[in-house]
Amino acid sequence: MTHTDPREVLNLIDGKWRPARSGETLTRENPANKASVVATCPASAAEDVDAAVEAARRAFPGWAATSVEDRIAVIRRALDLLTERSEEIVVADVLESGKTRADCAGEVARALSATKYQLDIAPDLLDSRGVLDSGLEAWSQLAPVGVAALITPWNYPFSAVLRKSIPALVAGNSVVVKPSELTPITGELVGAALVDAGLPAGIYNLVYGTGAAAGQRLVDHPDVNAISFTGSTRVGLAVAEATGGRDVKVQVEMGGKNPLVVLADADLDAAVDAAMHASYTAAGQWCIATSRIIVEEPVFDEFRERFLARTREVRVGDGFDEGVHMGPVSSRVQYEKVLSFFEPDKLSGTVLIGGGPAPDAPDGYFIAPTVIERPDHDSPVTQQEIFGPVVSLFGAADLDEAISLANGTPYGLCAAIFTQDREKAVKFAHAVDVGRVGVNMPTSVGDQQVPGGGRKNSGRGEYEGADAGIAFFTHLKPIFFKP
Ligand code: NAD
Question: Whole-structure pTM over 0.70, yes or no?
Answer without folding.
Answer: yes
